[in-house]
Amino acid sequence: MPLIALCQELPKDNTEWVQILPSGPQIKGLDGRTFSLSNPELIVEAFNERGLPLVVDYEHGSEDGEGPDEQVAAGWIEELEVRDDGVWAKVEWTEKAQNHISSKEYRFISPAFLHTVSGEIKRFSSVGLTNKPNLVMTALNSEEAENGRNWDELSLALGSDVNSPESALKALNRVKLNQQNAENEKLVSSAMQKGAFPPSQREFMLTACNSQGAEKFSAFIAAMGKPFAHLKKPIKQSTASKSPHSKLTPLQKAVCRQVDVSEELFLSTNKED
Question: Which end of the chain is less packed: N or C, by CB atoms within 10 Å?
């Protein structure tokens, strides 16, 4: 693939329409990095949706400069257009910038744009007059660089390796999900302890809580009441073995087996009577 520099020499006579991106789908900078421009119309749409002119600055000063002199505009892009050879911009130059261009003090123009981790160009951030086309690619800003994210610190905070907005969002969602699941575990355990449902239904109830949410689950538990609260009451230990009636007759044992009642519970009940 031929090497394509992300810079264009400015015309001497007509500076109204200038090319700010070559045609894609692959665009390679002088520093070797490759970017994708699979659908240039989307860049134009993003510009139109913004509804504001795009600044043309000096040497990408609006991107990395801090002083007021570095924020001065050289011109404003009022319109973008996709042509066969790339993306063109209609620029309204300032008088100062037009003098720089006419006297060849500035000869090139380069875009700064936002791109995805895979290198797909999404929208322009600014355009700069420059005389250093070999440094054009280092001046381009990805979304990560623009927002000043420190992926190492963010990875440590989230407990997961992240290196892009997409991976950070996924990691954050996992953290939120784990926190919510832990809260749901406590809610379900508390409801079970209070007798809302037997221990055998714990996993089912936990699944229901995770899928329906804590608020709906709490309302469901409140409506159920505590039908299994008696299961939490301790069984009284019988002292019937020390009494004359501590032994069951064969008939009593047969009754216990028939109704599935333990001999200890039967003796305890008889003693209370």
Answer: C
> What length is written for the chain?
273
According to DSSP H, which parts of the chain are helical?
Answer: 40-50, 61-64, 95-102, 136-139, 143-146, 151-158, 165-193, 202-212, 214-224, 250-259, 263-272
Which residue in 90, 138, 84 sits closest to 110, CA to CA? 138
Strand partners, 112: 126
Residues 169-202: tens digit of each pLDDT: 787 778 888 888 889 899 988 888 888 888 888 8
Last residue of a domain, one of 108, 124, 148: 148
What would the mean pLDDT of 40-61 be, rounded to a whole number?
A: 89
Tally of domains in the chain: 3
- What's the token pair of residue 259? 């109704």
**112 and 23 in a common domain:** yes
